[in-house]
Specification:
Elements: E1 4-9, H1 20-28, E2 31-34, E3 51-54, H2 66-78, E4 82-87, H3 97-107, E5 110-114, H4 119-126, E6 139-144, H5 158-161, E7 166-171, H6 177-186, E8 194-199, E9 207-212, H7 213-220, E10 229-233
Parallel strand pairs: 1-4, 1-5, 2-3, 2-4, 6-7
Antiparallel strand pairs: 7-10, 8-9, 8-10
Length: 241
């Protein structure tokens, strides 16, 4: 009997931001494959006896390959297990969801996607700001801060990213933000554009730092740290806006 896989968004880390559907799937799971940022109190919803498998990937640390994670999903479901693949934030946003879906489809295994609160929304909420504003911030764009090599992606749409009338959210940004900020300024974005560095969003260690893109780039050029983070920039990041 073939099992079933639920891709579940755990939100940014605060267990109170789990959806009811996410909790239901965790309570019913036989096996849970979870990321580093989808651990801690979030796992309290898993029933006794369920198997927990850590498959998180973090920069600079030994991590399972994507192919290995995908194969684990197939192997567990092939034996009839109800499998939850627990991903931080929303699984469809920079969560490498597609590779895992393709592996399941190739094996003929059914699945569902349970969306979660994206860390971008959680960061804005923590800072008490909206992501949009009528007339002056009418667009939100999400972009990854690094490619598969860990460097700044080479095919970025710089005119869009330098749009002063957009709110931009960069995922996994800290190591490459100095280089990105330099390119943004070259493409016309003011170095004084307000920016927000949101670290450990949704966790007790959460820290929000307001700066400009130039000041934040200068800081990160010498002190990256290890905390998972987002960077948001645009006019709405100004606390006096």
């Amino acid at each position: 009997m073939t099992g079933f896989v639920s891709f579940v968004g755990s939100g940014p880390g605060d267990p109170e931001l789990l959806t009811l559907k996410a909790v239901s799937r965790l309570e019913a799971a036989d096996v849970v494959l979870f990321d580093d940022l989808s651990s801690g109190p979030l796992l309290d919803h898993i029933r006794p006896g369920a198997a927990l498998v850590a498959v998180g990937k973090r920069a600079g640390r030994a991590s399972p390959t994507q192919a290995h994670v995908s194969q684990l999903l197939v192997d567990h479901a092939a034996f009839g297990a109800r499998v939850v693949r627990l991903k931080s934030g929303d699984p469809a946003i920079f969560g490498r969801l597609e590779e895992e879906i393709l592996a399941l489809r190739a094996a003929g295994i059914a699945f569902e996607i349970v969306p979660g609160v994206t860390s971008a929304s959680a960061a804005a909420a923590a800072a008490a700001i909206p992501l949009t504003r009528r007339l002056s911030a009418r667009r939100v764009q999400f972009v990854t801060g690094h490619d598969v090599t860990g460097g700044l992606p080479g095919a970025l749409n710089m005119p869009a990213l330098a749009d002063a009338e957009a709110t931009t959210v960069i995922f996994m940004p800290k190591r490459t933000f100095p280089a990105l900020a330099a390119r943004l300024i070259e493409h016309g974005l003011s170095p004084d554009t307000p920016a927000l560095l949101a670290e450990h969003v949704g966790h007790p260690e959460q820290r929000l730092t307001r700066a400009t893109i130039a000041a934040l780039a200068a800081r990160l050029s010498t002190d990256v740290g290890t905390a998972p983070a987002l960077i948001l920039y645009g006019s709405l990041m100004d606390e006096d806006a």
